[in-house]
Specification:
It is a single chain. By secondary structure, the protein is mainly β. It is built from one helix and eleven strands, in the order βββββββββαββ. The chain has one helix at about 105-110; strands at about 5, 10, 20-25, 35-40, 45-50, 60, 70-75, 80-85, 90-100, 115, 120-125. A hairpin with a 4-residue loop joins β7 (about 70-75) and β8 (about 80-85). The model has no long low-confidence stretch (mean pLDDT about 95).
């Protein structure tokens, strides 16, 4: 049974940093396309950053390029999202997701069909 548990969210001031973690169990993370998504109040969910399971390439939404870094530790079966230079518009609930089918990084972030999801962790950027 696929299980994903996010952690690391919280309240941070603009310009600050957070590192989100997504612990996976019930499967081996390195065979899956993986990604981070977020949903702000009143907005649709958007793909923030993803990693392909075909070639290991990464995708970042334009709004986070240069500030966020996605990574994974296969030995810990954990996915991470390092978020630097946070802005108020980064506020939202952040979810990790995985998909077993071979998927490009962009496709994973844009259209995560048949993905499994974590429960989310709240990130609030405010002074």
């Amino acid at each position: 049974q696929v299980q994903l548990v996010e952690s690391g969210g919280g309240l941070v001031q603009p310009g600050g940093s957070l590192r989100l973690s997504c612990a996976a169990s019930g499967f081996t993370l390195d065979y899956y396309a993986i990604g981070w998504f977020r949903q702000a109040p009143g907005k649709e969910r958007e793909g923030v950053s993803c990693i392909s399971n075909s070639d290991g390439s990464t995708y970042y939404a334009d709004s986070v390029k240069g500030r966020f870094t996605i990574s994974r530790d296969n030995t810990k079966n954990t996915l991470y999202l390092q978020m630097n230079s946070l802005k108020p518009e980064d506020t939202g609930v952040y979810y990790c997701a995985v998909r077993q089918a071979i998927t490009t990084a962009q496709a994973m972030c844009v259209k995560p069909q048949f993905a499994s999801w974590g429960q989310g962790t709240q990130v609030t950027v405010s002074s």
